[in-house]
């Protein structure tokens, strides 16, 4: 069964968009199999965004995710093609390019405050579920 990691980032939590985002996945027919609210550690955020460690916005991104002004909702969703369809439902990473009807296309405009995250491949889904939920089999 295919699973993906979806997160509501601090801006999405602060803006009260958690129920909308969960609702979209539920109504689509996907199954919620893991859910937690947490302020991630710097170590977790560094590892989650390890591929971006050389980018100029990396330090700001990690600070934003971890500074505790608002928590993150981490979720695991299960169902057919949930990795690719989850990304379609989130919309383009840069909200300026995200279509209407997508989460980002409906609710935001700034790439630095793009509300949500979704795994981009089977490999990253497995890595991210392990990171945020402590490994396969624990959820
Ligand atoms: P995500 O993993 O969040 O779904 P992605 O994998 O499509 O996004 P990446 O290029 O890996 O995109 O960027 C990860 C996150 O880094 C983005 O969601 C965004 O929060 C942040 N980010 C990317 N580019 C920028 C930028 N130019 N300025 C600020 N933040 C950025």
From TrEMBL:
The answer to keyword Kinase applying to this record is yes
Sites binding ATP sit at: 9, 57, 87, 93, 104, 114
Look up the coiled coil feature and give its residue ranges: none
> What Gene Ontology terms for biological process does this UniProt record contain?
CTP biosynthetic process; GTP biosynthetic process; UTP biosynthetic process
Q: What superkingdom does the record give?
A: Eukaryota
Q: Which cofactor does it need?
A: Mg(2+)
The Nucleoside diphosphate kinase-like domain sits at 1-139
The record's active-site residues are 117
The alphabetized UniProt keywords are: Kinase, Transferase
Q: Does the keyword Kinase apply?
A: yes
Give the EC number.
2.7.4.6
Q: Which GO terms describe its molecular function?
A: nucleoside diphosphate kinase activity
Please tell me which top-level EC class this enzyme sits in: transferase
Record-stated family: Belongs to the NDK family.
Name of the protein in question: Nucleoside diphosphate kinase
Encoding gene, per UniProt annotation: ndk1_1
Q: Which residues of the full protein are shown?
A: 83 to 221 of 236
